[in-house]
Amino acid sequence: xxxxAVTEQNKMDLAREMLAKLVDRRVLxxxxxxxxxxxxxxxxxxxxxxxxxxxxxxxxAEQVRRVYRQFLDPVGRAFPGWFGAKATADEALSKLAETxxxxxxxxxxxxxECPFGVETAEIMRVMRSVATAxxxxxxxxxxxxxxxxxxxxxxxxxxxxxxxxxxxxEKEVQDSLGSSKAKIPVDQKGARFLYVPLAGAHTIIPxxxxxxxxxxxxxxxxxxxxxxxxxxxxxxxxxxxxxxxIKEAEALKAQEMIITxxxxxxxxxxxxxxxxxxxxxxxxxxxxxxxxxxxxxDGKLQLNPSTNGEPVTYHDSCNLGRKGGLLEEPRRVIKxxxxxxxxxxxxxxHSYCCGAGSGLVxxxxxxxxxxxxxxxxxxxxxxxxxxxxxxxxxxxxxxxxELSEHYGLNTxxxxxxxxxxxxxx
Amino acid sequence: xxxFDMVAVGVVLxxxxxxxxxxxxxxxxxxxxPYGTELAPIKGSPSRGVLWAFTLGLAxxxxxSARIHWLAYIRGAIFHxxxxxxxxxxxxxPWLAQIPEPLRLVLAVLFGIGALLGxxxxxxxxxxxxxxxxxxxxxxxxxxxxxxxxxxAAISAYTIEYLPAFWIISGxxxxxxxxxxxxxxxxxxxxxxxxxxTFGRRSVLE
Lengths: 425, 206
Description:
Chain A is an alpha/beta fold.
C-alpha cells in the first residue's frame, strides 16, 4: 500500500468514525425517513435560481445518505447495490464537502416544505463536520475561526487597541446625543447586560445610543459574537470561541448576554451553546431585537417613524427567524420605527435564504454561486418596491448589498438598530 | 382449511414475526443513538410544537411545495392512508366474514384506489429524470410490494376467497419492511416529534 493510499484509508476511517459519532437520533431519523418523492425540489433557493439536479435538497442529502448506508447501515453494507450504498473514496469525500459547504446554506427551508420534515440541513451540518475533520474544510472559514481563538489567547495585546477604539466610538455617540455623559462602558462589573457586538462600528454606535437613551445598565464585550467554527461543524473550536464570551459574562457577573444583530451568533449562543457544554448558561441570552422590542413596549424610547419615511422591507435571517424563533419581534420594532413597511412574499417560516448563509459569504471563490443563489431574494425585494432592506444579520446584510449592486435593485441595506437609533426623538 | 390456506397463515405469521423483531431492532438502534437534549431556556412551547407537527405542519395548504406538487401530494396522502387502513384490515381479516358487506366494499374501493396510486408512483418515479436518477432498486421493490399489498387487499375485501393470497403478500411485505425504505414509517414519527420539540421550544411555530 502506498503512502497516499494509507492517508486515504486514514481519511476514510476518520470519516466513518466521525459519522458514527455525529449521527444522533435526530440525524438518523432525517437520513432514514426520506422517500425521494421530490416534493421539496422547489423549496431550495439554489434550485429556484438555477434548476439542476445538484440543487435539489434530496440529491444533496442522498449523497450523504449513500455514504451512511455504506459506513453505518448493516443492510446497506450487505446489499450496497440494492439500497444505493456507495463506496466512498477520497474524491467522493471532496465532492461531498463541496456540496455541504457551497451548495447548501443550512437554511432549513426545505424541512418545512417536506411532507415528512426531513432535516437536510442537519445532514449537511454533519457532512461539514466530517469534511472539516478529514481536511476538506474551507481554508477561509478555518482561518477566521482560528483568528477568533487567537484573539482570546492574546487578549492583553488586543485590549489596548480595543479600548482606544472604544474611546473613539464613544466620542461619536456623545456627538450624536449632544451629551458628554453618554458612555460606552467596558469591564463594568455587575452591569445588567453584556452586549456582544460584531467587528464594525455599525454594531456598536447605534446600540450605544439606544442604551444611553434607555438609561440601560450595560457593558461592551471585547469579543465579537461571530463564531465561524459553527459553519465548519467544528464543535471543539465552536466551544472555545463561545467560551471566551461566556467567561467574560461570568467574570462581570452580567445578568444577561445581549447578542447583536447576527444570525448565527445568536442561534449559536442562545440555542446551541447549552447543548455543547451540557448545561444551561448561567445568564439569560437574548438578541438586541428582543431588547428593542421590550424598550418600545415599556415606552423607554420616544420614536418618530416619519424619520424613516422611505418604503422598507424586512429580510428574515434564517438563523434568527426559522432557526431562532425571532419572527414577530423584528416586525414589531420595524413597524414602530418606519413609516412604510412592506412584507416580502413568502416571509417568516417560509422566507427564502438570501444565499449567503452558513459561511458562504466568506470565501471569494463562492461569490458567483451565492450571487446566483440570491436571485430569488433579489426578485422578492424588487417586488416590494422598497428602497431600504432591513435585516438582522451581518452576513445577510453584506449579501443583500451585493445583490442590490449585481441585480440593479438600487436599495440601501441597514439594520433594525440603526433604523431605531435614527427614529429616536 | 386447505394446505394453501395453512401455508398462507404460516407466511403471514412468519412475516409478522420478522416485522416485529425488525421493528424492535430499529427502535433499540435508534434509541441507542445520542440525543442532543435542548438545554437552553424555553421560549415557545415544545408540546404545542409537537401538536403543530402532526396537524397544521402537515396541512397541504400551509406548504408551498404541496401547492406546486398538489397531485403528487394528494397521491401520497391517499396512498399512505390506504396502507395504514390496509394494515388495520390485515389484523381484522380473521373476522372478515363478520364485517358487513357494504363496509367491505368501501374498503375494497379504498384499497383499489390505493393500488392505482401505487402504480402512479412508478410513473412519477420513472417520468422525472431526477427521481429516476436517484431511485434505487429498493425504491421500486418497496413500491411494488405495497401496490401488490393494496391490490390483494382490495380483491380479498371484495371476494373473501382470495384472502390467503392477501396473507401471503402481506407476509412478504411485513418481512421486508424493516430492511428497506418501508421502515421510513417508523422514522416519520421520530422526525415529526423532533421537529415539533426543537422548533416549538424556540417559538418558531407559534
